[in-house]
Write a structure and sequence with these properties.
single chain; 215 residues; 13 helices; 0% strand; globular
Length: 215
Amino acid sequence: MGKITGLEEIRDVPPKVLGMYRAVVELIEEGADIAGLRVSTITDRAGIGKGTAYEYFETKEEIVACAMVYYMQWLFDWLGKILLEKESFREQLDYLLDEMEKENGRKFCFLRFVHILTDNSEFSQLIRQKLGTREAEKCMPMAIFEKVLRRAVERGELRDDLPMDYMVYSVFAHLLTYMMAITTEQSFHVDPAGMRPYVFRGILGELCRTEQKQG
């Protein structure tokens, strides 16, 4: 197999590469400095030799970028399938908020991903380039939210007079606010439980039809 791009189907990713991906995500969850990560740290965690990494990747940056792209695709592909099984937008929103309250490490990891994706480093540009490909787009959060919202509009739950891009970013912004509240509650003395109803009502109040708000 040639060099890895991070956009391969799950079944096509070699076990040793999956091990490196898991190692990168675990290290990020633990708060490791990505810029200071060594290839040997990743391969030691994955239980493989350092030389093996270079059979699949040219640089450490490629390993980390591919791991992040793969993780994002896997996470939102999984999440999208579950959300689309729910019968109403309210159920979907409740499920999202429930999931956000679980697994502190993964919440922190996701926030680190968001930070990395929004800075201007060469590393961030590499990740954004991979995420912008056609292969990755279908599993990205904005694509998943759009699919969920379109079906809610078709069911008559949500307004049909708002641009879809705006609706997607509105939901994402509310959810990111809630995630930050959960993640920083000890530092900033935030009460996530008290904030959750406002996040829930904020999304519904902005996007729902009048009769759905009252229902």
